[in-house]
Amino acid sequence: MDHPTPAAKPRAGLAIALLLLGSVGFAALWVLLALYADRLLGWMAVPAAADAALLLRLGGMRRGWRRAVCAIAATAMTVVLANWGIAAGQIGAAMGLLPWESLLKLGLDYAWTLAQLANGGVELAWTAAALAVAAWLGR
C-alpha cells in the first residue's frame, strides 16, 4: 500500500483545487455552448472526464483508485453543474434573466424535474460513457 510522503500531501491538495476550478470552468463552457446551440450537448461529458483526469495528473496526484474516484466525482459534478446551468439559462431566458442571474433562483425540485425531462437515453449514455472514461483515465 502506498503511503503518501509529506511532500505528496500538498500535491494532492493542489490537484483537488485544480480539479474543482477546472470542473466549474468546464461546466461554464458547456453551458455557454449548449445555450448557443439550443441543445444539451450530452457528448460534452466525455471531454469533461478527460479534463478531470488531466487536471489530476497535472496537479501531481498519485496514480491509483483515489485519483480514479476523484475523476469520477469531478465528472459527475461537472455534468450536474452543466445541467443546472443549462436549465437555469433556458428558464431564465423566458423570464428575461441572464443565465447567471437565474442560477440561484432555480430550485432543487424544479431543476431535478427539468433534468429528468431533458435527459433522455442518449444523454444518459454519454454520461455513463464519461464516468467510465473518467475511471479509466483517472486510474
TrEMBL record:
<feature type="transmembrane region" description="Helical">
    <location>
        <begin position="12"/>
        <end position="34"/>
    </location>
</feature>
<protein>
    <submittedName>
        <fullName>Uncharacterized protein</fullName>
    </submittedName>
</protein>
<feature type="transmembrane region" description="Helical">
    <location>
        <begin position="117"/>
        <end position="137"/>
    </location>
</feature>
<feature type="transmembrane region" description="Helical">
    <location>
        <begin position="40"/>
        <end position="58"/>
    </location>
</feature>
<keyword id="KW-1133">Transmembrane helix</keyword>
<feature type="transmembrane region" description="Helical">
    <location>
        <begin position="70"/>
        <end position="97"/>
    </location>
</feature>
<keyword id="KW-0472">Membrane</keyword>
<keyword id="KW-0812">Transmembrane</keyword>
